[in-house]
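thought: fold this chain, then report.
action: predict
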Amino acid sequence: MTKYGCVSVGLLIAAVICIAAPANADDVAVPVPAECATINTAPYSAPESLTVKSGTRVVRFDVEIASTPAQRQQGLMCRSGLSDSYGMLFEFQDVRERAFWMKDTISALDIIYIAPGGSIVSIQKNARPLNQTPLPSFGDAIGVLEINAGLSDKLGLKVGDEVVHPFFHKP
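observation:
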């Protein structure tokens, strides 16, 4: 029950259909996994500021932080409609090669792997929704930034660019 009363099953089904519907004729509808009906998609944290310095360009994002094992495992599963200024930052306590997949993720994403000092290690571009193929970092990373698919190309982000956030710049 919500504070506005009970939500009918019909409304829930309609919401799921809306999530899966393409935004325009160029988009492909992505089937929403059944698990999405029971996954809590509330933000893990209040948005924090993160910037990427790419040459003379500085790009700012508001990021949600996934810092616990459960949050990192769920990530952006079952979420849609991210704005181009929003992302999720995955914070790990160890530095190693990483691999992410898109299980139960219904929005295409760019996955940016980040070294402890904040430099971009690699970018997996246009990761396909619902795909379970591991997408490796090809180098040691302590953090991962997920943003809308195609955005890293649109913004000109590349390997070696600097990600500025307190997590990467600890004394």
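thought: worth noting. Residues 1-26 have pLDDT under 50 and may be disordered.
final: tokens above.
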